[in-house]
Design goal:
156 residues, alpha/beta, YbaK protein, 8-stranded mixed beta sheet, two-stranded antiparallel sheet, 5 helices, globular
């Protein structure tokens, strides 16, 4: 499938410098880290959540797990994991489970775990299970400028 075209157009429109990295098929973020030879703390994993107010992308390092209670206390939303069936229409040009963490592309609110913002560079899904996008920290910060920041994870 390759990089999601919606994402490509968005990154290009912002003149974001990025590198596309091919890797063998991997379905989980930890598998992606292993297959791509990237430290899991540098991979921005996107977990889709929802409540009565709509969808939220929770973005955290692949080496972490989301604690919904912590997230609720910080952003005051009782979010639950979104079902994959609902997401197919919402994220049309992405393979399920390979969603890039750039919510503005899909008009989805984003909350990011602060741990990711301390990395010197970040990798994230390109929209399929065989490519990652690699960006420098300043480019990632720019892409996350409208994301809400919080601390809501624990080590996996």
């Amino acid at each position: 499938m390759g990089m999601a075209m919606t994402l490509k157009h968005y990154l290009d429109s912002l003149d974001v410098e990025y590198e596309l990295i091919d890797h063998p098929y991997a379905s989980t973020s930890m598998d992606v880290a292993r297959e791509a030879h990237v430290p899991p703390e540098k991979i921005a994993k996107c977990v889709m959540l929802e409540d009565e107010g709509g969808y939220v992308m929770a973005v955290c390092p692949a080496s972490s797990r989301i604690k919904l209670g912590n997230l609720y206390r910080q952003i005051n939303r009782r979010l639950e994991f979104a079902s994959e069936q609902e997401l197919a229409d919402l994220l049309g040009d992405c393979v399920l489970g390979a969603v890039p963490p750039i919510g503005e592309v899909y008009d989805i609110e984003v909350v990011i775990d602060e741990k990711l913002l301390s990395e010197s560079d970040v990798y994230f899904e390109a929209g399929d299970h065989e490519e990652l996008i690699h960006v420098a920290a300043d480019a990632f910060d720019c892409l996350m400028q409208n994301a809400e920041r919080a601390s809501f994870t624990r080590p996996a």
